[in-house]
């Protein structure tokens, strides 16, 4: 299956997971896995949340991200990835005051009904 993110429009999700600002996403969700191309403007964040039934891999396409992972601050830039295993918590934000952050996320469900 091919997703053509280049021909899709971003959809703004305000206060994503309880965060600040909004998360712009091109998202595909088949109930078993979410595949997301995301953009986060300066000052925007996702809320801190627990991955109870899934994990998440976030690859930084451009910009610089911060992650609060199980209470510790980490940073990743273009070409690096952040991993949040099932049972762990994290939040994400744009570490730049001037440039947007672009990410690619994969969220596979571990407990499918």
UniProtKB/TrEMBL annotation:
Keywords: Metal-binding. InterPro entries: Cupin_2, GPI/OXD, RmlC-like_jellyroll, RmlC_Cupin_sf. Residues 39-107 form the Cupin type-2 domain. PANTHER family: CUPIN TYPE-2 DOMAIN-CONTAINING PROTEIN, OXALATE-BINDING PROTEIN. This is Cupin domain-containing protein. The lineage of its organism: Bacteria, Bacillati, Actinomycetota, Coriobacteriia, Coriobacteriales.
